[in-house]
Specification:
Pnp Oxidase, Chain A; mainly beta; globular; 156 residues; seven-stranded antiparallel sheet; single chain; 3 helices
């Protein structure tokens, strides 16, 4: 059987984009960095976010009806670190409103999603959501590969 460390190392060789998921609880905005995000369907527009059951965001999403997804740009490594719990204490994220929901200001793409299904999968829950609103720009996205940030030249 594959060890968790070997599994993590192998999958770390699959480059991914970096997202910050936002949700609201008791009038406060909470966020979490995640790379386990994907498109599921075009009609209707569905996305999936995989969240570990031990993550603080898990309990918030279990009670939430909606969440935001901000796909980060190359200048947003500090936001990624902050929401992953490794950021500087004085960092203050900037949010903007999309369809009456907070998403990170300046992200490459922002989505507001309504949760339509939840599936337990091992030590994670898969949150499937219908996209209600999108906003995007042509900035270069930040990538994550082998525990390091990189970039893709979006102009190529």
């Amino acid at each position: 059987m594959t060890s968790p460390d070997d599994f993590k190392e192998a999958l770390g060789r699959f480059p991914s984009g970096v997202t910050v998921i936002t949700a609201q609880k008791d009038g406060e905005t909470h966020g979490m960095t995640a790379s386990a995000f994907m498109s599921v369907s075009l009609d209707p527009p569905l996305v999936l976010e995989s969240v570990g059951k031990k993550a603080r965001m898990h309990s918030i999403l279990m009670e939430a009806e909606r969440y935001g997804v901000s796909i980060l740009n190359t200048a947003q490594a500090e936001a990624s670190n902050h929401f992953a719990g490794f950021g500087k204490e004085d960092y203050k994220p900037r949010f903007e409103d999309l369809n009456n929901f907070p998403v990170l200001d300046g992200a490459v793409a922002q989505l507001v999603c309504k949760i339509v299904d939840k599936h337990e999968a091992g030590d994670h829950t898969l949150f499937i959501a219908q996209v209600e609103a999108v906003n995007y720009n042509d900035d270069a996205p930040i990538l994550y590969y082998r525990r390091k940030y990189g970039q893709f030249d979006a102009q190529s």
